[in-house]
Write a structure and sequence with these properties.
Four copies of one chain form a homotetramer.
Chain A (H helix, E strand, L loop, with lengths): L5 E6 L7 H16 L2 E5 L4 H5 L2 E4 L28 H11 L4 E6 L1 H12 L4 E5 L15 H22 L2 E6 L6 H10 L3 E3 L7 H13 L5 E5 L27 H13 L3 E5 L11 H19 L5 E6 L2 E6 H4 L8 H7 L6
Parallel strand pairs in A: 1-2, 1-4, 4-5, 5-10, 6-8, 6-9, 7-8
Antiparallel strand pairs in A: 2-3, 10-11
Protein name (chains A, B, C, D): Pyrophosphate--fructose 6-phosphate 1-phosphotransferase
InterPro entries (chains A, B, C, D): ATP_PFK, ATP_PFK_prok-type, Phosphofructokinase_CS, Phosphofructokinase_dom, Phosphofructokinase_III, PKF_sf
Pathway (chains A, B, C, D): Carbohydrate degradation; glycolysis; D-glyceraldehyde 3-phosphate and glycerone phosphate from D-glucose: step 3/4
């Protein structure tokens, strides 16, 4: 065992299945392998800014592996946008004698982690996004669970589509990257998959739908919430406010279902999966990945390798520079999308 | 074995997990116990009207028990609203030498079944509605599956609500009866449950939500799609078209989430489960119930007991008059709703 | 609200999904509707005998609805078989000022409840058995979950049986009653179902298996652990010790798989589901039933109606005498078994 | 499109979720991208030996993506162990004008594929093993599903262990490699994980178990079926015949449960998951992986790149030599096992 240390841990950004599994792994390895003390910060970066701490012991993580959400709470607070935010973090760190921070989060949380490291605070990052759009790692935890849930929904929607000879448009998460749409569409046997990376041609979608209707089967269209039609028709997206100030539930999916109904004369329905994709117990895959990320984040801290993030490469967990990880969004490459096209249409 | 008979079977109305299980049971019992021939009619009452038949053998039902939807297709066609509909049914029956029909469906399908029996055509009904709002039977198949799916969704939404200190409004099916809301709300541990049978008071809902936010937990509100606020605020319902002709996805649930956000100043989100509640593989409970309904429908036909419907009473399958079954909607009684109220609020 | 009371609650006998849901309902209704205090007794009747108590508050039951097991622990301790057991219960009751006890358990636990009531201690029972073999109630909670798990397993085993042209024998729980075998066999589409109530004829089973093998499908045999062959061949049951003192895992299922292999010359495998049938999160059905049982047990206490047990009759929760409930085992009636036989064989 | 070709496809060895997804992808891509005809061979290598063929069209693969098992059947037939086997394959190929074969299977099936390529028959391999013990690929499809099922079982067993203060030994698949045990043990939060790669010390296992019993929680031990105790105690394995000729169900798991009970004086139970781990619908992860393997196998055939196998490397599907793939078993490396040890014991 090395020097007796006190390590802070926090979770930032949107909810994601597997956060608790990372926390548990950090606590088990920190305490059992190194004899460290682990201090939880509440609600993302708000915790170190406002000195909201909560000591975490082995007993506290005993039953959390299987649970969604995060026992630490989360927020989107950014210390660089809060008056004196970084200085207040320094004070919290000093007051609590924190030697290093493990920050679990997405692009924003890790962006802060990078800047704090540049500013002399030792941070190790753990990548988290259900959208799988973080560079530098093969996959992030939460993504497999989101795909699993979306696929189960598609499996259920298929039978209802077929019994009623209806088109079903399933809107899944993915504002900037279509990974969930691509994987759940492949796994669910979708007849069209639409992603933000490729503006879609409504005529072509309708063509696939019509050919599908000629068979005894019904068309399933999986569309990422961030997908947009070519030429940029005015499509409001889920969560945006419409002209009357109402939050819109079901954006492009609902829009597309209406277009299909209008153009084909067939019944068409939209299903917007929404938040069920990011809650609840993680899949076994995500539990293993999140656990290994937590263990290796502790190794990085023990090695004093700050400014890094743990990442999956093949079957290995490696460390990459935070700067590399947050450099650019990882979108669906053309060849992956085209690979899926043999399943389109009839 | 009795007289060699030919029996028609059809499925009408909305999709419902367990339809195929009924069909399979009818075919197995009809063929193995009685030596009958079974003829499937396609797309509900459209089948006998347009002579759309499909013989069904043991092999055809071999792999359908676990599948959602219906291998016969469905429709909402009503022979009493189609020019010469009943006469055309008579012709189909004569041409195919059909001795009796087993009609699987909800209020509309069974209403037709009743009138046809009055008009001299032998029909036995099997009750089907995921909403559980058919009188004369304790439960209908499909309901347990819908509640199961809604409950799984609530389990997932709970963790995301808690990590983000958000209110989550879950809109479930139930236009006229709140059974799915009541049962999934109880099973999911909802903090408020709203049903069509009781116009709700928004102030009281907000009060429950606020008390819940005072704890470390987040409020979950389960609302049936047909629930309405007291005083009748203008709430558009899911599937209705708004002033601009757009089909609305998420009616009262979305409306309520906005009200809660406005009045409490806390984040609030709606999740509209929609069609995933009525597709996919049935639960074990529904497979057993649907199977038993199918077996007993064959018994009713063998006994020449037409104009009846099979029904669940306790653990027994009994026969009731179709007239009784379709007399009135079975809604959630006051005492069942009040039973649930100890779980409301904090 | 009535008189301020202190109510004890305990869980006895084998594990069963839904126990925590009952406890939660008792606590919510006792506290919120009546203002009572609730005291948990640990480990079944061992708790009141040894004065092992644990106060339970609203916060303690906040997150337990979805969890299997029991937060109170369980045991098979019988105060009538412990030196001075009943007197020690009286002392515990006096010391803790307990006004009544709600005892959640199966035949043994409820038998004790009945005798204690006869001996002047106020007890209300809540029926619990995954085997569904308790009289006086249509169903017990835990049963639906066990059937659900067994059915999921059968769904999975079917595909492996078919790919390999193998017979698969699935041994499910049910030492004295075949309810789990009957319902999971119906729901899973079994080709033979064997229950303790009817000694089975191996020749007939083999005949069904052989006819099934003549199709392109593979035979699935669901057998209750307590089923026995006609004539009483020496079949060791799961959990019993063999001649060498080893606990036997897989009794009649394993025996039958070997018989089938020997007699048909085809591959045959046994799967023994064991304890996975009684753990984990309850189904929505069981959560609702367990919750309602808990609420109504509080009503019975409030009414001073001791010596009773809550029971399901149709869709109502009623009270029955504990003497009636424990009078005899509820086994599968002949007509229910014969109903299933049209699914046997090919 | 290239030359009009006829491609044979077969599935060999043990059942594995995802086989149908590969077949579907081969058929879709072969027909839609290349205009090929696809011929299915029945029952592994038995098909080409005995000329058991079955043409497969788009319609045949329409509904198989979600199904476990294989529509082609499987066997362990080895043409090099059958009199004239390879010559008979040549005849079948000539007769059916087959241009190449896509062989989906494990070590044995792919070993044959390699030798046939050496003997001049064009074969491309697709790796399949739920055990994940094939070299040259990061993962094989079926493994994620097996881990998912085992993890769900552990989740359920945990609550029953805790309610009864029992040790629970869960025996999972893995005769030569402990991948399923390692991953499901990590995902299920096991307190001890035992793999074939490291003979285990019973004293140490008992020590972990006893420390765990000192907490309020119960020990879960996950053991691969091929794990063996140090010093080589005589442990019979699942599926082996004992001294009396009976097939043993539950080998090392059952043995270990008895050892733990004897040495600790606490109750201990074994659960043997068996065949449920390899049947039923594949996870979304496995559906995507299997689908991509099928698409890339078609690419390899189109490129005339025989003697290769498709493999997963990171997020890419690559081609590797069959000789490399079957060179040696991929076992759990020491560092992966030791990574898990911080979760052992209390």
């Amino acid at each position: 065992m090395g020097k007796q240390m006190r390590i802070g841990v926090l979770t930032g950004g949107g909810d994601c299945p597997g956060l608790n599994a990372v926390i548990r792994a950090v606590v088990r390895k920190g305490i059992k392998a190194h004899g460290w003390e682990i201090v939880g910060f509440r609600n993302g970066w708000q915790g170190p800014i406002e000195n909201l701490t909560k000591p975490i012991d082995l007993a506290d993580v005993e039953e959390i592996l299987t649970r969604g959400g995060t026992i630490l709470g989360s927020s989107r607070t950014n210390p660089y946008k809060v008056e004196g935010g970084v200085d207040r973090i320094r004070e919290t760190i000093a007051e609590n004698q924190i030697d290093a921070i493990i920050a679990i989060g997405g692009e924003d949380t890790l962006g802060v982690a990078k800047r704090l490291t540049d500013d002399g605070i030792g941070v190790v990052g753990v990548p988290k996004t259900i959208d799988n759009d973080l560079g530098a790692t093969d996959y992030t935890f939460g993504f497999d669970t989101a795909v699993h849930i979306a696929t189960e929904a598609i499996d259920r929607l298929r039978t209802t589509a077929e019994s009623h000879h209806r088109a079903l448009v399933v809107e899944v998460m993915g504002r900037h990257a279509g990974w969930i749409a691509l994987h759940s569409g492949l796994a669910g046997g979708a007849n069209v998959i639409l992603v933000p990376e490729r503006p879609f041609n409504v005529d072509k979608v309708v063509e696939h739908v019509e050919r599908r209707f000629e068979s005894e089967f019904a068309p399933i269209i999986v569309v990422a919430e961030g997908a947009i039609p070519e030429g940029g028709a005015e499509v409001l997206h889920s969560g945006e406010r419409d002209a009357f100030g109402h939050v819109r539930l079901g954006g492009v999916g609902q829009w597309l279902a209406e277009e299909i109904a209008d153009r084909t004369g067939k019944e068409s329905r939209a299903a917007v999966l929404g938040h069920i994709q990011r809650g609840g117990t993680p899949t076994a895959y995500d539990r293993v990945l999140a656990t290994r990320f937590g263990l290796h984040a502790v190794d990085a801290v023990a090695a004093g390798d700050f400014g890094t993030m743990v990442a999956l490469r093949g079957t290995d967990i490696v460390r990459v520079k935070l700067s590399e990880a947050t450099a650019e969004l990882k979108t669906v490459p053309t060849e992956r999308y085209e690979e899926a096209e043999v399943f389109f249409g009839a």
